[in-house]
């Protein structure tokens, strides 16, 4: 896409299930454990919402209705500006990696593409049944942020394996105000294990929208970078995932700074085994 080479490393074994089938299998095994409840003081089970995202996806009528209402509202009330949408692939698996400033971010990022987007949402948002059903119908699936939630990662891999779009916030939580936060390596793992192109996205202005229960008319801007492609690997080491995450986050930071966001202190370029692994594979 956009003249960028897409290189892949071949699996070590010629036989065996395809990557997409393996992702679905891992997700099915993780979500099929009977009676499992995530480790938390809350009695809410998250498996049903993950299963719905995998088996049924978004509610198409509800999704289209909300989109038809929100897009004009965002464009007028927030003076929403979307820069670089031409870089977005129109089909196939897609990872959108973005900074996270506001509850509004998944919704404004969803306006970048015409197809449904799926995204991880903290488990606390699924404790109220009515809210959980609405969010799940719009593409959200739960993640237990403090527990290294492997089931949520399996769900994301399976959604990408079937060719859909997943939004990831590498910071793991909302960060405001000031410069961008530090990313977690999950986005690097997803990129390497699925082979999905990663599009860096920056959002600015969304943190100024909400004041208590009031939604104020503040300008919100998004900027989209060119897709990043990484080779698919069978075994993704933490070092390699961290190195790929650093590259992705550097591109998100470029979009953020272009929009006028505060610049973080300079960080050293990735070194050591992870960087060498990327260089050999690229």
What report would you give on this structure?
This protein has 282 residues and is α/β, with parallel strands linked by helices. It has one domain (42-281): Glycerol-3-phosphate (1)-acyltransferase (3-Layer(aba) Sandwich), CATH 3.40.1130.10. 38% of the residues lie in helices and 13% in strands. It has 9 helices and 9 strands. It has helices at 19-31, 47-55, 60-77, 105-110, 129-137, 150-161, 186-194, 238-258, 273-281, and strands at residues 81-83, 94-98, 117-122, 140-143, 165-168, 198-204, 210-211, 214-215, 221-224. The strands form 2 sheets. The chain has a 7-stranded mixed β-sheet with strand order 1-9-6-2-5-3-4. A two-stranded antiparallel sheet has the order 7-8. A hairpin with a 2-residue loop joins strand 7 and strand 8. Helix 2 runs parallel beside helix 5 and helix 7 crosses helix 8 (238-258). The longest helix is centred in the C-terminal third of the chain and has 21 residues, at 238-258. The chain is globular. It starts with 18 loop residues before the first helix and ends with a helix. Residues 1-17, 29-43 and 278-282 have low confidence and may be disordered.
């Amino acid at each position: 896409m956009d003249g960028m080479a897409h290189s892949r490393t071949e699996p070590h074994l010629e036989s065996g299930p395809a990557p997409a089938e393996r992702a679905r299998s891992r997700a099915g095994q993780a979500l099929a454990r009977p009676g499992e409840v995530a480790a938390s003081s809350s009695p809410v089970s998250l498996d049903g919402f993950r299963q719905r995202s995998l088996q049924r996806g978004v509610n198409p009528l509800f999704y289209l209705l909300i989109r038809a209402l929100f897009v004009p509202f965002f464009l007028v009330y927030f003076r929403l500006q979307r820069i670089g949408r031409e870089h977005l692939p129109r089909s196939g698996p897609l990872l959108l990696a973005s900074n996270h400033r506001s509850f509004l971010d998944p919704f404004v990022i969803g306006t970048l593409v015409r197809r449904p987007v799926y995204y991880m949402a903290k488990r606390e948002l699924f404790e109220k049944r009515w809210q959980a059903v609405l969010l799940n119908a719009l593409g959200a699936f739960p993640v237990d942020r403090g527990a290294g939630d492997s089931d949520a990662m399996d769900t994301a891999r399976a959604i990408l394996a079937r060719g859909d779009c997943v939004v990831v916030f590498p910071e793991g939580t909302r960060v405001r105000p000031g410069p961008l936060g530090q990313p977690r390596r999950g986005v690097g793992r997803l990129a390497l294990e699925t082979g999905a192109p990663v599009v860096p996205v920056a959002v600015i202005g969304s943190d100024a929208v909400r004041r208590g229960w009031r939604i104020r008319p503040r300008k919100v801007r998004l900027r989209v970078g060119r897709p990043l492609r990484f080779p698919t690997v069978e075994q993704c080491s933490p070092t390699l995932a961290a190195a790929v995450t650093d590259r992705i986050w550097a591109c998100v930071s470029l979009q953020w700074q272009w929009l006028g966001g505060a610049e973080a202190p300079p960080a050293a370029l990735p070194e050591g085994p992870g960087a060498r692994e990327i260089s050999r594979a690229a």
